[in-house]
Amino acid sequence: MTIADPEVQLLAALADGLKGEYQTEEDLSWSLSPFGWIRGQPSRRKGAVGEKLVAGWCAARDINVLRSPDAEADRIFEGFRTEIKFSTLWANRSYKFQQIRNQDYQLLVCLGVSPFAAHAWVFEKEFLLSGTGALAGLSHQHGGAEGRDTAWLTVSPAEVHPWMDDFGGNLGTAMRRLRTLVGLR
């Protein structure tokens, strides 16, 4: 689309000239990334994109994927109710998987995308929320008594929590784990 108004053209040219002063290396790498467009989406839409990415990835790897009939899970993989959390890499070089709740699902898939890499972890909800070591990476998302039902998991792909090693990391490892948990080889 071209700009017809000469005053807007002037302002756009000035903004383009200033862009270099304000763009960070991170902005530049995301602008070239196949995942860069996702970062500009509103939070709820980012989550929907993440769900579709995971569902498509699983379907492409011969996992039967169905939409959940209710809001307690996002998808059903081979009969297993599954919640999906998605994050792009934050400026502090970590992923934040938010709004982790104790709802009616069995598996939790966390997918994180960086400009040119992706990471995933697959957890059994009972393990993740049980406090058997997993809580080292979970923190309550909101303060106060009312905020105890929502947690988030912060993960730096460069320094993954040691307890997470068996749950994924690279996409191949996460997919093997998911296939094993849903009874596929």
Notes on the protein architecture:
By secondary structure, the chain is α+β, with helices and mostly antiparallel strands. It has helices at residues 6-22, 25-32, 36-39, 43-60, 125-130, 171-181, and strands at residues 65-67, 75-77, 80-88, 95-100, 107-113, 118-124, 138-140, 151-155, 168-169. Helices cover 35% and strands 24% of the residues. It contains six helices and nine strands; from the N terminus they run H-H-H-H-E-E-E-E-E-E-H-E-E-E-H.
In short:
The protein is of the alpha+beta class. The chain has helices at residues 6-22, 25-32, 36-39, 43-60, 125-130, 171-181, and strands at residues 65-67, 75-77, 80-88, 95-100, 107-113, 118-124, 138-140, 151-155, 168-169.
In spatial order, strands of the major sheet run: 1-2-3-5-6-9
In N-to-C order, the SSE pattern is HHHHEEEEEEHEEEH
The percent of residues in helical segments reads 25-40%
Note poorly predicted spans. Answer: none
The biggest sheet amounts to: 6 strands, mixed
**How many distinct beta strands?**
9
- The secondary structure category is alpha+beta
Radius of gyration: 19 Å
User: Assembly type of the shown chains?
Assistant: single chain
Keywords:
three-stranded antiparallel sheet, 9 strands, 185 residues, alpha+beta, 6 helices
Write the layout of secondary structure elements.
Elements: H1 6-22, H2 25-32, H3 36-39, H4 43-60, E1 65-67, E2 75-77, E3 80-88, E4 95-100, E5 107-113, E6 118-124, H5 125-130, E7 138-140, E8 151-155, E9 168-169, H6 171-181
Parallel strand pairs: 3-5
Antiparallel strand pairs: 1-2, 2-3, 4-8, 5-6, 6-9, 7-8
